[in-house]
Amino acid sequence: MIQESHLDLVSKYYGTRDLETRLLVGGRSNVNIHVMETGQVVRVPGTGAADRPSEGANIAALTVCETPLPVAKYSLYVVNDRNVLPVDDSHDYSGFPTGFAVMDFLKGVSLTGELFKDPKVQEAVARAYWTIHSSGVEFVNPASPFIEIGVYQKIIANQNTGYLPNDILQILQHMGDLSISLKESWIKAPRLSFGYPKLLHADPEFPNYIIADKANILDWEYGGRSKDWLYDVAGLLAENAHEIEPDTAHSWLDTVSRQYGIKVNPVAIKQRSFANLLV
Length: 279
Prior knowledge:
By secondary structure, the chain is of the alpha+beta class. It contains nine helices and nine strands. It has helices spanning 4-14, 52-63, 113-116, 119-133, 145-158, 168-184, 229-239, 246-260, 266-278; strands at 21-23, 31-35, 40-44, 74-79, 82-83, 101-104, 109-110, 209-211, 215-217. It has a six-stranded antiparallel sheet with strand order 1-2-3-6-4-5, with helices on both faces. It has a three-stranded antiparallel sheet with strand order 7-8-9. Helix 4 (119-133) packs across helix 8, helix 5 (145-158) packs antiparallel against helix 6 (168-184) and helix 7 (229-239) crosses helix 9 (266-278). 33% of the residues are buried.
């Protein structure tokens, strides 16, 4: 839902309140507002576990990549009252929260379970991930499901847990034990033809993929530096399991195997899917 405080930021950025806006789908932690007159999307950041300064630096790295990437083009990312992107912009963004961002609107439709059944759509998503993983772009912060599990454990343990189960502390301990056990048996992601990726998307909800003549990948707040490209592949299945049928999942792994030139190990996929569900 778009609140008045969100529209206040939009009007402050554009210098007018006379704008036609609409709320975009997705955005559990953020509010994404399509500004019709400008063809842009304003992202108002929410609260959560995201490391906003690192996200800003990572988006800056995507912005300067010479290889055309399947991502939205950003013109603004605010960290501590300034635009951290490599663009000519010396404005003072006092009053804008860290993580406030403006990007081009991408035409297309959000990915769904029904769309994902289409082999051509699977090929488009696999190609988008391959392009990202092989781009050579290096993110600034380390990314790992085990790091993220630890972050969420601390957030939950430090909050008022009156609305959470009475045995929340035991649940947190069990999560920790599971992650340790999983980490001990972790299968290393295989080396690719170019070596290893230097980034991970790590936010594989279907609304973060826009399908048109190609697939574009949105939302980089949980991205980070990692060689484990299999986590992105498995995460898409785990995060959207309620919409993906078994035959579609098998087809997706075959599609990825062809795109990456490596036979995907089903055991490694199961491990990473489980880690994604823990997160």
